[in-house]
């Protein structure tokens, strides 16, 4: 279910997300493009008129967004950071987190030059990825919530999006011949994906699908993960990497 926000007022909303990775250059254009279009990929996000910026500094990518609308933008900027780093060739991403989330006021967006990079692909025609997320309400992952069943929704979102990463970053799209995802819940939420293709190395798709699964779960549980200030001090994707 996409939550009904039709009766909420339009208010100023701002969020900044960041994640760490070792990359030579950052595909900030892909990060912004992903943030602006996150509602097309994460199944329960509302489309919204977003302004966004992205830059890299000290081994981290930052994506921030601003809108005057009826719903928050934290998931949009998280998605932007995920896509931006995978699109930069990162094979390992650490601590994907919401750094700042504001209502009624927003700082001016950081002025940063957008850099478009071709996606460099490495490896075989079979790739797997692993992701781990820290949540407070881990028990809800395997139970239904207002938006639906987080586990099943994450599996479906990953399967749909493994074929769509090339839409955001550009370049040829691999012909996916097999996709598998496993999600386990213990002290953390852990995701493993496996992708086989006919023609193009799919390591970026494996990482992207794992990230989409985790962000879908986060989005479905964000009502329960927020603190009294509406922030997420104890919720983040700890690591995401190609195995």
What are the SSEs and their pairings?
Blueprint lengths: L10 E10 L7 H9 L14 E7 L2 E10 L4 H13 L5 E12 L22 E9 L15 H12 L3 H5 L6 E10 L3 E9 L5 H23 L10 E7 L1
Antiparallel strand pairs: 1-3, 1-4, 2-3, 4-8, 5-7, 5-8, 6-7
Helix pairs in contact: 1-2, 2-5, 3-5
Describe this entry's structure for a reader.
This protein is an alpha+beta fold and 243 residues long. Helix content is 26%, strand content 30%. It has 5 helices and 8 strands, in the order E-H-E-E-H-E-E-H-H-E-E-H-E. Strands 2-3-1-4-8-5-7-6 form an 8-stranded antiparallel sheet, with helices on one face. The chain is globular. The mean pLDDT is 95.
What are the salient characteristics of this protein?
8-stranded antiparallel β-sheet, 26% helix, 243 residues, alpha+beta, globular
Number of helices: 5
Largest sheet: 8 strands, antiparallel
The helix-strand sequence is EHEEHEEHHEEHE
Rough outline: globular
Q: N- to C-terminal separation?
A: 33 Å
Tell me briefly what this model is.
This protein has helices at 28-36, 74-86, 150-161, 165-169, 203-225; strands at 11-20, 51-57, 60-69, 92-103, 126-134, 176-185, 189-197, 236-242.
